[in-house]
Write a structure and sequence with these properties.
Layout: E1 5-6, H1 16-23, H2 37-58, E2 72-76, H3 84-89, E3 93-98, H4 101-114, E4 119-123, E5 133-139, H5 148-158, E6 159-170, H6 174-186, H7 203-212, E7 215-217, E8 221-226, E9 230-234, E10 240-247
Parallel strand pairs: 1-4, 2-3, 2-5, 3-4, 5-6
Antiparallel strand pairs: 6-10, 7-10, 8-9, 8-10
GO biological process, one term: methylation
Pfam families: Methyltransf_23
Binding site for S-adenosyl-L-methionine: 46, 77, 98, 139
């Protein structure tokens, strides 16, 4: 494993204040009852969607325990590796990239303790080899970057010609302002300062950026919540949404 630093080769997408905010949470990232508790609850929903995308894209057997064997995966905004580790267990060669050095250190330490050979890198995406990843994931990240267009362009450059991307983010709606920002911070579900509603992006805006970058987005699904089901994939896009993208043609 390595924790090399990536230097930007183009437009910087990292906001230093966002990196500092999430880096301060690094030591608590793997605590399911800590400051990242909501991510622990979100992770199974994300993984269910990713697994379905893998099976659809590559025609994998749904009973295969390692459908990503022989595949390279990039998780952008990986935090301390909550998504990288299960992707590695699905057979992938995984690289995780994050803006906060503290997160990369925590991710590397946890992966080593779990016996998982994951490569972690700190910094921008600009110096990763173009087209080298079969699967690119970026979950709840674009709302934190400085230049959304540049970020999407860099994501597209990382994806192999026949690869698939899975993306999720909060929607910019009245409901998300009330529930994901005001209420979530008021009750301590997320640390204060985690979300800035004006930086949220709608599905239409996201799809337009992907189109400019030569990618075609799928119809998004919502990530909803109710007391009976908890967090789950739904048709309601008012809070969070998740979807796939592929190169056109």
């Amino acid at each position: 494993m390595s924790n090399a630093t990536l230097q930007s080769s183009g437009s910087a997408t990292i906001r230093p204040e966002e990196a500092r905010h999430f880096g301060a949470l690094a030591a608590d990232w793997w605590n399911p009852k800590g400051s990242s508790a909501m991510l622990h609850k979100l992770n199974p929903v994300r993984l269910s969607f990713i697994r379905a995308a893998i099976d659809t894209h590559w025609g994998a057997d749904s009973d295969d325990l390692r459908p990503l064997s022989g595949k390279s995966v990039l998780d952008v905004g990986c935090g301390a590796g909550l998504l990288c580790e299960p992707l590695a267990r699905l057979g992938a060669t995984v690289t995780g990239v994050d803006a906060a050095e503290e997160n990369i250190a925590a991710a590397q330490a946890h992966a080593e303790g779990s016996g998982l050979p994951i490569t972690y890198r700190h910094g921008e995406l600009g110096q990763l080899k173009p087209g080298q990843f079969d699967l690119v994931t970026s979950m709840e990240v674009i709302e934190h970057v400085a230049d959304k267009r540049a970020f999407v362009t860099e994501l597209a450059e990382c994806l192999s010609p026949d690869g698939v991307m899975v993306l999720s983010t909060p929607n910019r709606t009245a409901a998300s302002r009330l529930l994901l920002v005001k209420a979530a911070e008021a009750i301590g579900a997320v640390p204060k300062g985690t979300h800035h509603w004006e930086d949220f992006i709608t599905p239409e805006e996201f799809a337009a950026l992907l189109d400019e970058a030569g990618l075609e987005a799928s119809v998004p699904k919502g990530i909803g919540f109710n007391p009976m089901k908890g967090l789950h994939i739904s048709e309601d896009l008012s809070l969070n949404y998740i979807f796939t993208a592929r190169h056109k043609g």
